[in-house]
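Re: [ENG-882] Designed sequences occasionally contain unexpected residues at chain ends

Forwarding the minimal case from QA. Structure tokens:
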């Protein structure tokens, strides 16, 4: 007895007395609230009042027998509140309406949705765990999360969500809180709890601070036993109770009492704090002045259930000062024991009234005085909105934490100097991480059953990304490394330049004995799809790192530590709404795709769209050919045809112009002395690039190597196998005589010029530019552009001569050629002239996928800058993206195509700005960029399959129709 009095004395004087200045359960229209509450209470029997104290467990995945049981509890025992557990939102909504119809007083519906309704319900949205949120330093995002969860709860008829967890997780071995906590820093935990609460309660949903007086420093789980906290009152006041006092002041509506044994607060070590009057009444309500709803933790948990019988526990909880019994067991016996206690005067009806009034106030505050059934239509859509994913992305982006970066690996730059490998550790999937990494450059997945094998395979690489992937099923799943993984990690790190990316709790790093050999460490917190994708984007500099560790990792990395990294202006891969575009409108492309495929305009194709550096669409449709053996994948490469002009020749020409190696006013005879005395000698570079030089459109050089009657290739020019003098590969088993290149240039020199001045699109100038560039730099065109543009850009899926670089099944065929090469062109360039130059032409020959084409176009859009590197000067891009002969009705810039001047010519959709630029290709390719809208669009197809006579894609203006859809999807 003396000890009990001593504890009460300490509680009275040791804790700083605090009180909520305003009752959080009082609504704005408090007079109307009082009238409503009084009108109900005055007509209530004692049994009905007792029924309001219960919040019974209900499921939406159980049978009719369970539903009947719940209905019985409501009708016969007047149960006033339900907590829904596992099931589906549609079924819960249906049952909710059914149970509300059975209730005399509207039911208050509770839910355990710490990270969203997904905590209990299938097919609902899952936001990150609190530990992930603890890494975020922008608390307005946490408030927004509270708003979203509040809206979800409201939509499903939930009035109280048992969140946020405000426990300070100072014990890494805590088996039940851990990832559910915002971290170990009391200020960080407090501010996030307040922000979350403000957001959720702004939507009319009661928040709940749990688990009072603090479950963060326990080593056991109250679901299974009664955890013990052996801390003195001073420690409890300064740490565990700190966030509760602050959230009380901020107006949180309810608190959950935990099943703990805390001897400094309750002398009976067997008595859980949830059943202790010292804790629930003396400390929580009197000394801390909490005026809101006091709710027990689940009374089916072993931390409470082992204390006495269910009815005795329930009575003890009310006597201790709780208002609401969560998941009480044995309702009939509990009603009887409470009534018996009132008879024996160990409990008064006034005490019951006190809690019932608070519960009814909470119901009014949550809008139950004007209850309406849940609308069943559209629930799935409303609970999985685009806005939810937008927020989720921002939460994850802001949480990603760079813990270490001693070699400046992050973000990865200078891709031309990197040879990157990825090694997976852990027992969960890494598919989305690897897939996203590969969007930025060449990343090889390296694996082996043995450590020695891994070490040997990693020798050629100068950067190894190690991903540690653990289950994201729930926050209680193990985050620990297996011994084998620890050994492999340290040995790989000892011999390689390593970035370790941890897709699980930061506590996993506690197992590492040393971080000495690991150059870079990222904590991504969870192994969700979004965490994997966004972490990969962070690594390559799509955006910078902002996160800070919410917990300490030994003395190596303290809580609050996190390195800031910069953006390298690389693509960010996201959803349309993140770029202020409409997903719904973009889906019209899918409908158009069905038409393209059904009408055989092309067997397959890729479509890409980005806005303001954010990729919103990167999708493949159809198959490689009509045989439908291989589906088109995003990494498959297409023959780009004339896109080669602006993606290969033009960037080199612009660079040469910057370096004053080529002048736009130079004449072709200055570029190639062999053109002196020709009818093209005085044509300028500017005129040629603008297609204003009177050059013929093209010359069918191959016909000069064929019999004029049979149209068969003449043996004097070709061999079936590569020989010393026949080494120019035209196609499979077809090699052209080496000396014929001279004939090609002779044909160009001697070709008649058009008599009429004006615009005429021509390939011929690019034959000249190719030769001039190769002479100037003393290297082949393909080597020049690969080294200077594609490698540093991370455009590893872009190449001339693709069969030398890619597996054949990753190259989309073009045409069944029956006029020259007499074979299916599969990996060999379609353009005949480029083929006769060995596959490398200034005008054609390049292969790529839509993603890589877009990188080059984005570099142009960013005025020559991409991935932390400047390729071209701003002034250069402006100079080349300009019409020099618009007064002559020439729409072209220098190399770049531009919007039509004649509305009858469909160069674009007619919906782009005059500043925009791009190009189209004969094989069914197209790309366009618009500085005004920030759009980059790419369309790649093999419309020439089975033959080039297949022109319906062109005649139906499909490429520009899709461009129009993309433009129309912009929301601003």
């Amino acid at each position: 007895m003396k000890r009990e009095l001593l504890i009460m004395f300490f509680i009275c004087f040791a804790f700083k007395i605090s009180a909520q200045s305003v009752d959080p359960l009082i609504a704005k229209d408090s007079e109307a609230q009082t009238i409503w509450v009084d009108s109900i209470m005055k007509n209530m029997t004692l049994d009905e009042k007792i029924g309001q104290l219960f919040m019974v467990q209900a499921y939406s995945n159980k049978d009719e027998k369970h539903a009947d049981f719940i209905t019985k509890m409501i009708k016969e025992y007047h149960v006033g509140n339900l907590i829904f557990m596992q099931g589906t939102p549609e079924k819960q909504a249906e049952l909710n309406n059914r149970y509300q119809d059975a209730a005399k007083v509207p039911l208050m519906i509770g839910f355990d949705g710490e990270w969203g309704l997904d905590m209990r319900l299938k097919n609902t949205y899952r936001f990150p765990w609190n530990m992930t949120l603890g890494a975020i330093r922008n608390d307005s995002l946490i408030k927004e999360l509270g708003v979203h969860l509040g809206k979800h709860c409201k939509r499903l008829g939930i009035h109280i969500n048992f969140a946020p967890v405000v426990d300070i997780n100072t014990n890494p071995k805590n088996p039940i809180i851990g990832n559910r906590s915002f971290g170990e820093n009391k200020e960080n935990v407090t501010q996030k709890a307040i922000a979350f609460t403000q957001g959720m309660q702004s939507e009319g949903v009661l928040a709940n601070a749990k688990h009072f007086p603090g479950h963060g420093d326990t080593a056991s789980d109250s679901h299974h036993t009664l955890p013990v906290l052996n801390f003195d009152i001073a420690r409890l006041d300064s740490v565990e109770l700190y966030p509760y006092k602050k959230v009380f002041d901020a107006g949180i509506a309810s608190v959950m009492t935990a099943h703990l044994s805390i001897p400094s607060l309750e002398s009976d070590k067997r008595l859980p704090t949830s059943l202790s009057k010292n804790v629930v009444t003396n400390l929580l309500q009197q000394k801390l002045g909490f005026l809101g709803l006091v709710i027990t933790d689940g009374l089916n948990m072993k931390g409470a259930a082992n204390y006495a019988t269910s009815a005795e526990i329930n009575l003890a909880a009310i006597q201790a000062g709780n208002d609401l019994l969560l998941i009480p067991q044995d309702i009939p016996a509990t009603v009887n024991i409470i009534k018996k206690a009132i008879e024996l005067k160990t409990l008064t009806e006034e005490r019951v009234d006190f809690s019932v009034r608070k519960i009814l106030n909470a119901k009014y505050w949550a809008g139950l005085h004007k209850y309406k059934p849940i609308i069943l239509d559209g629930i799935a859509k409303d609970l999985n909105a685009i806005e939810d994913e937008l927020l989720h992305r921002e939460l994850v982006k802001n949480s990603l934490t760079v813990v270490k970066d001693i070699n400046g690996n992050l973000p990865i730059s200078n891709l031309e100097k990197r040879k990157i490998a990825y090694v997976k550790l852990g027992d969960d999937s890494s598919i989305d991480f690897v897939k996203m990494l590969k969007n930025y450059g060449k990343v090889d997945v390296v694996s082996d059953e043995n450590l020695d094998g891994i070490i040997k395979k990693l020798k050629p690489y100068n950067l190894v990304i190690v991903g540690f992937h653990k289950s994201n099923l729930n926050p209680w799943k193990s985050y620990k490394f297996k011994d084998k993984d620890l050994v492999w990690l340290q040995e790989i790190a000892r011999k390689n330049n390593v970035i370790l990316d941890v897709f699980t709790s930061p506590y996993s790093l506690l197992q590492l004995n040393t971080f000495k050999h690991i150059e870079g460490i990222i904590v991504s917190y969870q192994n969700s799809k979004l965490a994997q994708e966004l972490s990969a984007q962070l690594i390559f500099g799509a955006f910078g790192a902002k996160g800070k560790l919410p917990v300490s990792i030994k003395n190596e990395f303290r809580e609050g530590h996190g390195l800031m990294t910069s953006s390298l202006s690389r693509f960010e891969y996201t959803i349309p709404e993140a770029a202020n575009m409409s997903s719904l409108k973009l889906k019209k492309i899918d409908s158009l795709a069905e038409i393209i495929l059904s009408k055989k305009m092309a067997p397959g194709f890729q479509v890409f769209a980005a806005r303001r550096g954010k990729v919103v669409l990167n999708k493949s449709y159809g198959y490689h050919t009509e045989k439908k053996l291989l589906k088109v994948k995003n990494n498959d490469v297409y023959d780009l045809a004339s896109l080669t002009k602006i993606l290969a020749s033009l960037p080199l020409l612009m660079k040469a112009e910057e370096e004053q190696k080529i002048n736009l006013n130079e004449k072709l005879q200055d570029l190639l002395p062999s053109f002196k005395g020709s009818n093209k000698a005085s044509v300028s570079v500017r005129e040629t690039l603008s297609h204003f030089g009177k050059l013929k459109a093209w010359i069918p050089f191959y016909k000069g190597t064929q019999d004029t009657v049979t149209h068969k290739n003449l043996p004097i020019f070709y061999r079936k196998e590569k020989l010393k003098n026949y080494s120019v590969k035209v196609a499979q088993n077809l090699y052209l005589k080496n000396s014929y290149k001279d004939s090609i240039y002779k044909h160009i020199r001697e070709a008649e010029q058009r008599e009429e001045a004006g615009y005429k699109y021509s390939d011929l100038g690019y034959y000249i530019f190719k030769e001039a560039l190769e002479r100037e730099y003393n290297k082949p065109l393909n080597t020049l552009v690969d080294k200077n543009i594609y490698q540093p850009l991370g455009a590893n899926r872009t190449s001339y001569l693709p069969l030398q670089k890619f597996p054949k099944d990753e190259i989309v065929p073009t045409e069944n050629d029956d006029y020259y090469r007499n074979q299916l062109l599969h990996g060999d360039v379609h353009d005949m002239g480029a083929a006769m130059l060995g596959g490398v032409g200034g005008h054609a020959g390049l292969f790529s996928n839509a993603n890589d084409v877009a990188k080059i176009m984005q570099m142009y859009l960013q005025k020559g800058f991409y991935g932390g590197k400047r390729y071209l000067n701003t002034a250069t891009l402006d100079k080349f993206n300009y019409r020099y002969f618009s007064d002559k009705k020439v729409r072209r810039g220098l190399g770049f195509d531009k919007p039509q001047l004649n509305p009858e010519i469909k160069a674009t959709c007619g919906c782009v700005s005059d500043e925009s630029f791009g190009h189209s290709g004969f094989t069914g390719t197209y790309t366009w960029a618009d500085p005004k809208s920030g759009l980059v669009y790419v369309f790649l197809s093999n419309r020439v399959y089975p033959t080039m006579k297949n022109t319906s894609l062109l005649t139906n203006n499909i490429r520009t129709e899709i461009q129009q859809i993309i433009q129309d999807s912009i929301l601003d």
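QA comment: On inspection the terminal residues look reasonable. Residues 139-155 form the longest helix (17 residues). Proposing we downgrade this to a documentation issue.
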